[in-house]
Structure formats: C-alpha cells, structure tokens
Amino acid sequence: MIEYLPQALSSLSVALKIGKSLININNITERQDALIKFSDAIIDANSKIIASQSVQSALAAKIDELEKECMRLKNWEAERKKYVRKEVGPGAFVYIANDYVGNFQSAHKYCCDCFDNHKKSTLQQSKPSINIRLSCHNKCPDLVFHHYIDIT
C-alpha cells in the first residue's frame, strides 16, 4: 500500500511540471502533446491511488476476518470448558458435559476428533446389535465397543 504513495506523488510532480510548462507553450501541436502528457500523468497518479485503496481494502477485510476468527476461538475456549473427555466403553472416548449425571448410554456425546478441531458433532448410536456403534456425521471413524462402562 505505502509503495504506491511515492509513485502517485511522482506522477503528480510530473503533471505539475507539465502544467507549469503549458504557460510558455504557444505552438498548438506542442500544447496538445503537453496536455496529453499532463493527462497521462494525472491518470497514472489516479491509478496508483486506486491500487493503494484496493490493497488497503483487502488488508482491512483480512483484519476483519482475523478478528472474527479470534473471537470465534475465544468463544470456543469458553464452550470447550463445559465438556470433558470420558471413556464410555472400553477404548471408546467421547466428550460429555462436565455436569452430566446418569448412565453414559443416555448422555449426549460429541466426537473427540471433531471436538478437538473446534466442532461439536453429536455421535449417533446405531440400532443395538452385538456391538455398540457410535457414528459421527463428519465421516470420522465409528466407535465400536461391546458395552458401556458403568459410572461409579
């Protein structure tokens, strides 16, 4: 952004010199040539200023995006503190609310992979069979185990 300012000032300086020289030019052809150069210098300065504004606008948008991401991460940290990783079955870990009381089968469970990547993805239990299967809708590997661990 700042690199465009000296370039724009240089173009305006050229335009000023040409403008001053126009006073002493009496030949119509030379005057027209000088006016064209004057106009080109003004257009060049204007394009440099527009380029600078474009860069400034892009930087402002990036700053806004980063501020939003920072706020989202701060909010996530506050939300994350409400949950704890628990083993609900042999080798099967999920996130459950800190204050949850009851058996693990009835608990609202979040996928550890997703949760660790700042997403809350509810695990869905499939129909009962020999094994218990908890599935994440984000295509994470299913959790498969034989029985829930009793809460002590």
Give an overview of the whole structure.
There is one protein chain. Strand 4 and strand 5 form a beta hairpin. 51% of the residues lie in helices and 16% in strands. The radius of gyration is 33 Å and the shape is rod-shaped. The protein folds into 2 domains: 4-79; 83-145, no CATH class. The mean pLDDT is 88. A 3-stranded antiparallel sheet has the order 3-4-5, with no helix packed on it. A two-stranded antiparallel sheet has the order 1-2. By secondary structure, the chain is α+β, with helices and mostly antiparallel strands.
Strand and helix layout:
Blueprint: H1 4-22, H2 28-80, E1 83-89, E2 92-97, H3 112-116, E3 123-125, E4 132-136, E5 143-145
Antiparallel strand pairs: 1-2, 3-4, 4-5
